[in-house]
Structure formats: C-alpha cells, structure tokens
Write a structure and sequence with these properties.
mainly alpha; rod-shaped; disordered N terminus; about 160 residues
Length: about 160
C-alpha cells in the first residue's frame, strides 16, 4: 500500500504520526533550550541529527495533510483539537528556542570581544619601542620613575 493511498484512506494515521513527530520535536527543542541556557553548546551537536530527522518528518507529514485539506472536515474533533494543541506547543517552543539561541549568540559575542580586548591590552603593555636615545621605552619610563638625582663626573 502506498503512502498516498494510506493517507487518503486513513488520514487519522497521518495525523497521529504528525502529532508524535511534533511531540518529539518539542522534546528535542526543549532539551536544546536547556543546554543553551546552561551554555553547554558542545552537547547540542548530539541533538542536531535527531532534530533534523524530526523536522524532515514534520515537513513531510504536514505537506501530506495540506495536500488533502478535506480530511479535516471528517476528522475526529478530539484528534483535531490534539493536533492544534501540539502545533501551538511547537510554536511556543520554537520562540523559546529562538530566544535562547539569540541570548547564547550575544553572550558568546560579548565573551569573544572581552577576550580580544584583553589580548590587545596585554599586547600594548608588552610592546616595546625604542626612544630617541636608543633606550627601550619601557626601560626609559621605568628608570625615570626610579632614578635618583645624581650626576656622574666623567672626568675621572
């Protein structure tokens, strides 16, 4: 039996499949939000393949439902309500995920900027240049602070 025939004969089967897919996607995205908030970015990589698989299944399932909108007229009201509820929950989770991603991105950008500034400050402190007298500027500044007023008699 082909998928198209199966869907047309039993749209409830496809709706149940979409509902299960959405629930799985919400679960994965909720875990992703938790990892983002905990700044455990490396662990998110493990979720990406599962998320991609679920997104593809969701796209396929919903496109099949969109291609035959008449089934909604005959769909059990409880199943229709459950479908709406999980889609609404998915929309909320997607917004939370987006917010967490933006926050993590902003935080990482600030951290990187702070690191760059610290490195630049350290470089400027350690950079050496020579004065007009051929003395290192850092040594010249240091000796100016610690020098004592004394004159050496060079006649000896």
């Amino acid at each position: 039996m082909s998928t198209g025939l199966k869907t047309k004969e039993f749209p409830e089967t496809n709706v149940h499949s979409v509902i299960a897919t959405v629930k799985g996607l919400v679960s994965v995205m909720t875990r992703e939000v938790e990892l983002l908030r905990a700044m455990q970015i490396k662990e998110m990589g493990l979720l990406q393949q599962e998320k991609l698989t679920l997104v593809n299944a969701y796209e396929q399932g919903t496109s099949t439902l969109r291609n035959d909108p008449s089934f909604m007229k005959h769909l059990d009201p409880l199943l229709k309500s459950e479908l709406r509820d999980v889609i609404q929950q998915l929309n909320v989770t997607v917004k939370e995920n987006e917010t967490a991603l933006l926050a993590a991105k902003t935080s990482n950008e600030r951290l990187m900027q702070a690191v760059v500034e610290a490195v630049q400050q350290q470089k400027s402190k350690n950079s050496t240049s020579y004065s007009q007298t051929g003395v290192l500027a850092a040594q010249s500044a240091q000796s100016a602070q610690t020098s004592t007023p004394m004159h050496l008699n060079q006649c000896l």
